[in-house]
Structure formats: structure tokens, C-alpha cells
């Protein structure tokens, strides 16, 4: 099963840095196991462009559409047996401690 894991900031990070896993170790382990298909850090929200069409008109604006203190700062595409495995992979990611991770399964549109 493929999952999109959104890597997000959080307003209440872990205060004990000794508990936070190393990101390079997490990437290496999950790449080697074939669980991490792809991942990347995203540009800042200030670099975002929002695209909408309303009443047939194209509306393009700078920055994110919604104002929020928590932003998506990266992503990973995971290939896991099921949600339980994806949760275990996510719980070992540093941003599970300093931010938050959102897992969403990919939908097979052929079904």
C-alpha cells in the first residue's frame, strides 16, 4: 500500500532533543528497506502559489490559501504492507517529535 506522509510543523515540539531520531538514519533505513519511495523538503509557504478557477476565471495568488501556524514542510511517499506499518515508519521520523506527520493512503482510481 502506498501512503503520502505529509511532514508538518507543530506549535508544540518535543523539548528533549535526545529523544529525536536522526533524519539521515531514518532515510537510509527506509530507503534500504524499500519503504520510502520518494521524499523531499518543500520551499517555504512564502514561495507557494495558489491556483483556483471560479466562474471560469483563473485566480492566482501568492502564498498559501489558508493562514495557519502549522505548515507542510516536506513529504515522503511510503510503500508499506498496511497502515500499521506506515504508522511504525512514521513514529521513527524526527518530525513525529518536532512536528507532526499526516498519513494518507493513495486511492486506486481503477477500482
From TrEMBL:
Gene3D superfamilies in the record: Dimeric alpha+beta barrel (3.30.70.1060)
Signal peptide annotation: none
Gene source species: Actinoplanes auranticolor
Pfam family, one: YCII
Recorded superkingdom: Bacteria
Matches recorded under InterPro entries: Dimeric_a/b-barrel, YCII
Name of the protein: Transcription initiation protein
UniProt record similarity statement: Belongs to the YciI family.
YCII-related domain segment(s): 4-107
Amino acid at each position: 500500500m502506498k501512503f503520502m506522509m505529509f511532514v508538518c510543523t507543530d506549535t508544540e515540539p518535543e523539548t528533549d532533543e535526545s529523544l529525536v531520531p536522526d533524519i539521515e538514519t531514518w532515510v537510509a533505513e527506509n530507503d534500504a528497506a524499500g519503504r520510502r519511495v520518494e521524499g523531499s523538503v518543500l520551499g517555504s509557504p512564502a514561495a507557494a502559489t495558489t491556483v483556483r478557477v471560479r466562474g471560469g476565471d483563473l485566480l492566482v495568488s501568492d502564498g498559501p490559501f489558508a493562514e495557519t501556524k502549522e505548515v507542510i514542510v516536506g513529504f515522503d511517499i511510503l510503500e508499506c504492507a498496511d497502515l500499521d506499518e506506515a504508522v511504525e515508519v512514521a513514529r521513527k521520523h524526527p518530525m513525529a517529535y518536532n512536528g507532526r506527520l499526516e498519513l494518507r493512503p493513495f486511492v486506486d482510481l481503477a477500482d
